[in-house]
């Protein structure tokens, strides 16, 4: 079973890339984030082309912002939306959908960004992650947590730790919240497969960050202790970030039980490309 997660940064804009990508990579389960469409609009746009490809669909969206979806060709049972006990900002946002697909509980998540350390949105992010941990703790043993987690697990997951000083995604409380989820028995299977390589999943559109490989790894697939041994390949589909009209995120793909494209997938992480010795300032840095 091939499981993929992708922050598409507006599914409406990404349709010309999403459908050919589905045909090329043939994932059995797809977790989408930042769809930016209400449920009825998502259905009107994609129900037929997804049905033609054999996918059942569960969506939790809202107009203009956020939005998550689950596509499955191996069953879509016991669908739930949202995270029980999670706060809103101020209202509940469309950030989580889960279902049982092929016997595995799959969570498609778009974790709050946090915006600035110590801001109200940052506190909301930490409270949301705490509620997610509680849900996962009482969930089925066979599970995967997929999505834009908006946390770089370690300094190795950003192009330059010094560039991120004072920014979200790398602070100790955020990483501790992620570690609390991992402590339940969830394994970062991409990093386990590529323990020493420079691998990212997100690159800012600005300042040529992708072409210089100045990115972050914030899109994760965490497999429970019972599922992790089934992982035969885990990789980031960097090619999907290239070309015209891409998302600023690349898909993350994990193969369970068998790896049709080999144990490293068709895309090996590129060699380290640190962008030269000159220090790089983040485009959003003040």
TrEMBL record:
Ranges of residues in domain Endonuclease/exonuclease/phosphatase: 4-249
Molecular function (Gene Ontology), one example: double-stranded DNA 3'-5' DNA exonuclease activity
Sequence segments annotated as region (Disordered): 241-286
Listed transmembrane segments: none
Keywords: Hydrolase, Magnesium, Metal-binding
Compositional bias segments (type: Basic residues): 276-286
EC number: 3.1.11.2
Named cofactor requirement(s): Mg(2+)
Superkingdom of origin: Bacteria
Pfam families linked to this entry: Exo_endo_phos
InterPro entries tied to this protein: AP_endonuc_1, AP_endonuclease_F1_BS, Endo/exonu/phosph_ase_sf, Endo/exonuclease/phosphatase, ExoIII-like
NCBIfam families named in the record: exoDNase_III (TIGR00195), xth (TIGR00633)
Protein family according to the UniProt entry: Belongs to the DNA repair enzymes AP/ExoA family.
Name of this chain's protein: Exodeoxyribonuclease III
């Amino acid at each position: 079973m091939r499981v993929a997660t992708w922050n598409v940064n507006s599914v409406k804009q990404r349709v010309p890339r999403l459908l050919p990508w589905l045909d090329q990579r043939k994932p059995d389960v797809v977790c989408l984030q930042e769809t930016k469409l209400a449920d009825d609009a998502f259905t009107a746009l994609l129900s037929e082309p997804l049905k033609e490809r054999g996918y059942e669909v569960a969506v939790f969206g809202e107009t203009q912002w956020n939005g998550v979806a689950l596509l499955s060709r191996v069953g879509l049972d016991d669908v739930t939306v949202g995270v029980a006990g999670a706060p809103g900002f101020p209202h509940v946002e469309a950030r989580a959908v889960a279902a049982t697909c092929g016997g595995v509980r799959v969570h498609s998540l778009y974790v709050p960004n946090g915006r600035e350390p110590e801001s109200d949105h940052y506190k909301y992010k930490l409270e949301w992650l705490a509620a997610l941990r509680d849900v996962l703790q009482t969930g089925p043993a066979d599970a995967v947590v997929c999505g834009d987690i908006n946390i770089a697990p370690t300094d190795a997951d950003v192009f330059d730790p010094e560039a991120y000083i004072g920014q979200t995604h790398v602070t100790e409380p955020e990483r501790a919240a992620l570690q609390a989820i991992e402590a339940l028995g969830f394994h970062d299977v991409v990093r386990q497969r590529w323990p020493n390589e420079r691998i990212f999943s997100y690159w800012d559109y600005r300042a040529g960050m992708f072409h210089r490989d100045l990115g972050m790894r914030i899109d994760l697939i965490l497999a429970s202790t019972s599922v992790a041994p089934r992982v035969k390949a885990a990789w980031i589909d960097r090619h999907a970030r290239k070309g015209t009209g891409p998302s600023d995120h690349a898909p993350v793909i994990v193969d369970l039980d068998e790896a049709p494209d080999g144990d490293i997938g068709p895309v090996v992480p590129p060699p380290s490309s640190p962008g030269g010795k000159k220090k790089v300032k983040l485009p959003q840095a003040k």
